[in-house]
């Protein structure tokens, strides 16, 4: 059991990560046809004891289609020739996603434009309309 630090207060257990390997497409020539360099990482968000509920909810929202119905986050990396590099890349992406989910979005407080700004806007529109009105066809008497 090795804990992987995500933030100062959150760490996930390495046993929660399930990695599988497959043949990758992309760079590598004949080498890519013989080695399992693509890495598929599965992380069970729904049943993770190390993530707070609020983080799980935001992570599920951020993950989008990468999250299965069972609440398992699936990430794949096959950009490099090396399995080790792909493995590190997919883990880094998982940690970045979890870190992003730990950020609590600020509540939006609706504001009203001031009377002066509304008046300036209307005056600007009137001025612009006058400029455009002057661009019409010229009548010769």
From TrEMBL:
<feature type="compositionally biased region" description="Basic residues">
    <location>
        <begin position="127"/>
        <end position="141"/>
    </location>
</feature>
<keyword id="KW-0378">Hydrolase</keyword>
<dbReference type="GO" id="GO:0003747">
    <property type="term" value="F:translation release factor activity"/>
</dbReference>
<dbReference type="GO" id="GO:0004045">
    <property type="term" value="F:peptidyl-tRNA hydrolase activity"/>
</dbReference>
<feature type="domain" description="Prokaryotic-type class I peptide chain release factors">
    <location>
        <begin position="23"/>
        <end position="39"/>
    </location>
</feature>
<dbReference type="Pfam" id="PF00472">
    <property type="entry name" value="RF-1"/>
</dbReference>
<protein>
    <submittedName>
        <fullName>Aminoacyl-tRNA hydrolase</fullName>
    </submittedName>
</protein>
<dbReference type="GO" id="GO:0072344">
    <property type="term" value="P:rescue of stalled ribosome"/>
</dbReference>
<feature type="region of interest" description="Disordered">
    <location>
        <begin position="105"/>
        <end position="141"/>
    </location>
</feature>
<dbReference type="GO" id="GO:0043022">
    <property type="term" value="F:ribosome binding"/>
</dbReference>
<dbReference type="InterPro" id="IPR000352">
    <property type="entry name" value="Pep_chain_release_fac_I"/>
</dbReference>
